UniProtKB/TrEMBL annotation:
<dbReference type="GO" id="GO:0016491">
    <property type="term" value="F:oxidoreductase activity"/>
</dbReference>
<keyword id="KW-0560">Oxidoreductase</keyword>
<dbReference type="InterPro" id="IPR051609">
    <property type="entry name" value="NmrA/Isoflavone_reductase-like"/>
</dbReference>
<protein>
    <recommendedName>
        <fullName>NmrA-like domain-containing protein</fullName>
    </recommendedName>
</protein>
<dbReference type="Pfam" id="PF05368">
    <property type="entry name" value="NmrA"/>
</dbReference>
<feature type="domain" description="NmrA-like">
    <location>
        <begin position="3"/>
        <end position="251"/>
    </location>
</feature>
<keyword id="KW-0521">NADP</keyword>
<dbReference type="InterPro" id="IPR008030">
    <property type="entry name" value="NmrA-like"/>
</dbReference>
<comment type="similarity">
    <text>Belongs to the NmrA-type oxidoreductase family. Isoflavone reductase subfamily.</text>
</comment>
<dbReference type="InterPro" id="IPR036291">
    <property type="entry name" value="NAD(P)-bd_dom_sf"/>
</dbReference>
Length: 322
């Protein structure tokens, strides 16, 4: 049993993990939140604590006795990664043993191509900061948990984990439609079910060995060709595909009426459509470059764990759906 702190505990993935850790009955869990703790349900072993994350001394006090600190900040809202760096500094001063920065998505290829999806720049910036802290000797053990895309999204809108809001993918199973860059049909990306992610992280918290610096959690790998094959099989009809040119996307020209609807809290209502098109183009480019293809460090550490495979999951979700 260890004391675990969750920073950004209101995030969707964090809430799913907190439920898992609470259900285990093994740990003391500190949920750090900006909102009023009275808004959150009582859970066994969980203490909701309000903080602005602005006072480093306060953070040091809150983190006393914490063994493992997991961060789930929205990095695009943390200018210059100042808040997460402050949290890391406080963790070092409080003698926290392990830290997980706010990754939970793309793989290590992001490090050399962060300009493709600039809203993830904070992930790379924080990784560099952690490297600098441990430059001369290890001060803080950390793992960059990388999961690829959430497999759950391919079940939208008929599957949604508790606490999660899904959106359609660029291969849209509901509308039987795909956005595909010409020449990218066999470019793989990792897809991992949220349930599998939280199960592995719960195991990782208890893992007595040293955490890998890069910690890939890879449920399955799918190319656009495989997604179309599965989609057409489970939906019963061919998908319509809009074939896109890389040059058009790089020039900011999305030649399709289909795009992801990305409505972030930080996006003004009159900017949602423009940002959604921008994000769709960037996600397509990033996927073709393998930025969502993750490694399998945690798969190898826990070889007994059986990950949910995409075809099995999607067949179950879409069975009988019109």
């Amino acid at each position: 049993m260890v004391k675990i702190a969750i920073a950004g505990a209101t995030s969707q993935l964090a809430r799913s993990l907190i439920d898992k850790l609470s259900d285990s009955g093994k740990h003391e869990i500190l949920g750090l939140i900006r909102k009023d703790p009275a808004q959150f349900p009582p859970l066994p072993g969980v203490e909701w604590v309000q903080t602005t994350y602005e006072d480093e001394l306060e953070l040091v006090k809150l983190l006393q006795g914490v063994h493992t600190l997991l961060c789930f900040f929205a990095v695009h809202l943390d200018g210059g990664s100042a808040t997460q760096k402050r949290l890391i500094d406080a963790a070092v001063k409080a003698n926290v043993k392990r830290y997980a920065p706010s990754e939970w998505s793309t793989g290590e290829k992001l490090d050399s191509a962060v300009d493709v999806i600039p809203w993830y720049g904070g992930k790379v910036e924080v990784a560099r900061y952690l490297e600098s802290i441990n430059k001369d000797k290890e001060i803080l053990e950390y793992c960059r948990f990388q999961t690829g895309s959430f497999l759950d999204y391919l079940g939208h809108p008929h599957h949604s984990p508790k606490h999660m809001i899904t959106i359609q993918g660029v291969i849209d199973f509901e509308k039987r439609h795909g956005l595909i860059i010409k020449g990218s049909m066999d470019k793989e990306a990792s897809f991992t079910l949220v349930e599998d992610i939280v199960n592995i992280v719960a195991r990782a918290v208890e893992y007595e060995g040293k955490w890998p610096t890069i910690g890939g959690i890879s449920g399955d790998r799918l190319s656009p060709r495989q997604q179309l094959r599965i989609g057409e099989a489970v939906r019963g009809t061919p998908f319509t595909v809009d074939w896109l040119e890389m040059e058009d996307l790089e020039a900011g020209n999305l030649k399709s009426e289909h795009y992801l609807k990305v409505d972030l809290p930080s996006t003004a209502a009159d900017q949602v459509e423009a940002f959604s098109k921008f994000a769709t183009m960037k996600i397509l480019i990033a996927s073709s470059l393998g930025l969502w293809t993750v490694t399998d460090e945690w798969n190898r550490i826990f070889p007994d764990y059986k990950f949910t495979k995409a075809e099995e999951f999607l067949t179950k979700v879409w069975a009988g759906k019109e």
